[in-house]
Amino acid sequence: MSPRSARLARLSRSVTFSACHRLHSKSLSDEENLKLFGKCNNPNGHGHNYKVVVTVRGEIDPVSGMVMNLTDLKECMQAAIMEPLDHKNLDKDVPYFSEVVSTTENVAVFIWDSLQKLLPQGILYKVEVHETEQNVVVYKGEETIVK
């Protein structure tokens, strides 16, 4: 009998949270912000029902048959996504966004960074943030593009 080779798999779980924000950059004038962000620059903000899909990747454990226990993934997502973001004003209630524009791209980075602190090292594969049914950001931890 030959030993069975390791099998890799990806496991995804989703959550939905509601939050409001205002797209506004402190580096731009009010006129420039309005031109760049349009109605999303409304001083009173606007809200979304975000859907987040987190994907982890790893070897299927030969004993448990799992890449990761779903209960553990659920708990990490609760701590990294739901607790800091659900029913919040991203710009006012989440310190990260006091200096970072609360675009969906930056929400994805925030979630990635938060999950990295909680998940086993190297297991996080992808974070998808669905701002609307038409607008989705995928982040895989890349920090910069060398030019």
Automatic annotation (TrEMBL):
Cofactor entry: Zn(2+)
Gene Ontology cellular component terms for the protein in this record: mitochondrion
Gene3D superfamilies the record matches: 6-pyruvoyl tetrahydropterin synthase/QueD
Example of a GO MF term: 6-pyruvoyltetrahydropterin synthase activity
InterPro entries according to UniProt: 6-PTP_synth/QueD, 6-PTP_synth/QueD_sf, PTPS_Cys_AS, PTPS_His_AS
Record SUPFAM superfamilies: Tetrahydrobiopterin biosynthesis enzymes-like (SSF55620)
Keywords associated with the record: Lyase, Metal-binding, Tetrahydrobiopterin biosynthesis, Zinc
Source taxon at top rank: Eukaryota
Annotated EC: 4.2.3.12
Pathway info: Cofactor biosynthesis; tetrahydrobiopterin biosynthesis; tetrahydrobiopterin from 7,8-dihydroneopterin triphosphate: step 1/3
Keyword Metal-binding appears in the UniProt entry: yes
Biological process terms in GO annotation: tetrahydrobiopterin biosynthetic process
Function, in words: Involved in the biosynthesis of tetrahydrobiopterin, an essential cofactor of aromatic amino acid hydroxylases. Catalyzes the transformation of 7,8-dihydroneopterin triphosphate into 6-pyruvoyl tetrahydropterin.
Family: Belongs to the PTPS family.
Descriptive protein name: 6-pyruvoyl tetrahydrobiopterin synthase
UniProt source species: Cardinalis cardinalis
